[in-house]
Design a protein that fits this description.
This protein is mainly α. The chain is built from 14 helices and no strands. The protein is globular. The two termini are 40 Å apart.
Length: 357
Amino acid sequence: MKNAEIQPARLYELDLLKALAIICMILCHCVIRLGLHQPGYEQDVRYWIGDYFFGVYMAVAHAFMFAMGVGIVYSRKSSPADLIRRGIRLYVLGFVLNFFRYGIYALIDGLIEGEFMAETVYALIVQDILHFAGLALIATGLFKRLKLKEKHIFIIGVILSAIGGPLAFAVQGSYVANYLLGHFITTTEECSCFVFFNWYFFVGAGLLFGAILRRTEDRDRLYGRLLCAAGPVMALYIVLSAAVGPLFLTKNGWYYAVSLPEAAGLLSIDLTLLGAFHFLLKKADVPRFSVFITMSRNVKQIYCIHWCILGFVDSIFCYLLGVVFPWAVIYLFGIVLTVLAAWIAKRWTERKRLEKV
């Protein structure tokens, strides 16, 4: 059965990875958005924990993109046309989220003050992970239309990452040029978030892993080997990061310009966690993790909901009213926001499901 496709049950270990990622991401966003109003926040260890521990070195954006690659392999709607359509919708959704996250408040402020600041444009067009995910789906659809296999797409991801790392901050021009080109290579920190050349590596890795997993009979053996390979890499990467500094392999330490060696280190974290979750699920009943599995299924909704609520709190309470939240309140708010966003997303999807019946 070497070349036959094995149809495993739902990848609950991937669900747990995605659930952990959305929890960490929400905590990170609360810290970096609400915490920056604290004087001297950049030197505060509580900001560092939220920004780097929850925002970089746990399963966060890189885990989402890896999981998206795996999901494409297992999706019933993975034809080139399906992927391109999904990509376009996600890319547009990124701008819709920008509007409801901060853009609407920037526009209202401009109308009241009679002057629109540069921050207003930024709030409306800033790149988001949804923009990158959209471009990644479109690119994957085009690659599949060219009949490329997962291993070929992964190689392309490696090549793009190898190019994108050294090119970071090397090519700059006008704001418009920086913004447009910043979708693909890092131009400036303001204009480049989740850059395609640097981040498609994770999608390609997910595609390759998904293809391997789908043809694997003995998943325990595969995950055992995965832990033996990825675990030591993760340990070495974390030790070196602690000794040298966060994102020490990436130019200027800019997360969104992640280099190929840095991406490999981050991927080792995702793979180690994925393997650990696989064996955890063999020891514990799946229903015990039903809350997290449901969160995984509603990741897109949770992501958008939490940003809309966080944007409202930040814009109204922090920027308008000048409130500076204590660190304990910020972290508590992150926990509450996670639960609230997950609950709203669950109710939303249940209502949509009933409407279709």
